Amino acid sequence: MKSNIKLLFENLIWVVILSLTFANDNILFSQQAQIESFLRNTRVTDIKNDGVDIWVATEGNGIFKFDKVTNKWINFSSENKKIKQDFFYCIEVGNRYVWAGSADGLYIYDKKRKRWKKGNSV
């Protein structure tokens, strides 16, 4: 069952990302390579679209953001020191904040300040 859910999320990412691109073979090929390099062997737990970016919570790889303006993936993880936790169960997005739930508690991303904080205050 878990592998079916993982496959469903992986396919959902493909559908969401591909629906954001134009019907240009070069763009689709570029997107496919980016998706594979960033999300290969990643357990996706939740995906949200805030109308500007796509946010992906993962189990063990932190949080990924697909920036539609720059057409690039950004990773927030303990490895790159952009967030202290790598295991997230859920993610929710708003106009100014992104909330991510982990076993360690709630993490909040302030879009204006471009930083994560732990807890319920920003």
> What is the CATH-assigned architecture?
7 Propeller
Number of domains: 1
The count of strands amounts to: 8
Oligomer: single chain
CATH topology: Methylamine Dehydrogenase, Chain H
Overall CATH class:
Mainly Beta
Residues in β-strands, percent: 25-35%
CATH superfamily: YVTN repeat-like/Quinoprotein amine dehydrogenase
Global shape: globular
- List the strand order in the largest sheet: 1-2-3-4
Query: Cα-atom Rg, whole angstroms?
Result: 14 Å
Helix-residue proportion: 25-40%
Task: Give an overview of the whole structure.
With 122 residues, the chain is of the alpha+beta class. The chain has one domain (2-118): Methylamine Dehydrogenase, Chain H. The chain has helices at residues 2-20, 25-39; strands at residues 44-49, 53-58, 63-67, 72-76, 90-93, 97-102, 105-110, 115-118. The strands form two sheets. Strands 1-2-3-4 form a four-stranded antiparallel β-sheet, with helices on one face. A four-stranded antiparallel β-sheet has the order 5-6-7-8, with no helix packed on it. Strand 1 and strand 2 form a beta hairpin. The longest helix has 19 residues, at 2-20. Mean pLDDT is 77; it is low at 1-11 and 14-31.
For the structure shown, list the relevant keywords:
single chain; 4-stranded antiparallel sheet; 122 residues; 34% strand; Methylamine Dehydrogenase, Chain H; alpha+beta
List the helices and strands and how they pair.
Blueprint: H1 2-20, H2 25-39, E1 44-49, E2 53-58, E3 63-67, E4 72-76, E5 90-93, E6 97-102, E7 105-110, E8 115-118
Antiparallel strand pairs: 1-2, 2-3, 3-4, 5-6, 6-7, 7-8
